[in-house]
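The instructor's notes for this session suggest beginning with a concrete chain rather than abstract definitions. Hand out the sequence below and ask the class to guess, before any prediction is shown, which regions might be ordered.
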Amino acid sequence: MFHVKLHGSDAMARGADEKLVSRRIKLPRRIVEKPLRQVSRRLLMALFVMALTVLIVWIDRDGYHDNANDKVDFLDCVYYATVTLSTTGYGDIVPYSDSARLVNILLITPLRVLFLIILVGTTLEVLTERTREEWRLSRWRKNLRDHTVVVGFGTKGRSALQTLLATGLSKEQVVIVDPSAKVIDIASAEGFTGVVGDATRSEVLLRAEIQKARQIVIATQRDDTAVLVTLTARQLNRGAKIVAAVREEENAPLLKQSGADAVITSASAAGRLLGLSVLSPSAGTVMEDLIQQGSGLDLIERPVNRGEVGKSVRDTDDLVVSVLRGHRLLPYDDPHASPLQLTDRVITIVRAAPSATPPVVLGSPD
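After discussion, reveal the predicted structure:
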């Protein structure tokens, strides 16, 4: 029986308080016209249709008959246009000539339909917007694959995502899962697709299309939640790379047993960085620079170039820290690390620079 050491409060644990209706997918927001502008635009369109109808009736006023005095003046034209467009139709003013009736068929009737469409435009827009969202969601599900799922959009999740975006990952390839609707609203406003719900539930992760994801970042606040999310994610996707963060170091082995490929101990890592900064502020600055992607020095993982095959790790152009051979991670001073092989991958320290094909970035400690 496993024991997980708990620490602090967790937003994921509070997900049980969220309503079931909140467990939904929220695609990135698009710029929507302000309501006042929409109403003003529709009002101007309605007035234009009204004015056009009055003009048509006024031009052909001799073809209309008024039961009151047989004469159709400008006020009668306005009155007729009003009751006609609103489909009231009292019948006191009627077209009696062939030309007036033909104009009613060809012009007045289409204008009446257009006027009604403008009046119920809000309802139609809601239905259209809902249909458009369903279509966007369907297209999103169809095209999404090999994406990145970030569980928890707190400090750790944001920092990890910023690092991935600095290497060239597009926002369209990111899905964020969080139990807070407000957090997902913020993520959506920033251009990310979000799923509201408890990530320990399979149905929520399936909404994030986790079965087609290439990598999964688990950045919850509680270690027990991270374990449950890892177990669920690994069950749904056997091939994805799962990186999880825990607060307590003693819980790291449990995360690995649950299916995580890499586990970052945020509290211990931060503590070690603090201690290093006390002993040597310069060394602490260098370490902070290494874990901050895109500026100064970067710690990256890349394949061995053909020109480096057969060479020692010390003979490469970059500063090699470790060699990844199969499932073994060899330090640079290990005798077995040299010579380099074509199937090896090297972890190097390089000067940050924009690249057409972004390298694999090593995870941040928090």
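Then share the key points. Residues 6-23, 355-366 have pLDDT under 50 and may be disordered. Residues 22 and 165 are 27 Å apart (CA to CA).
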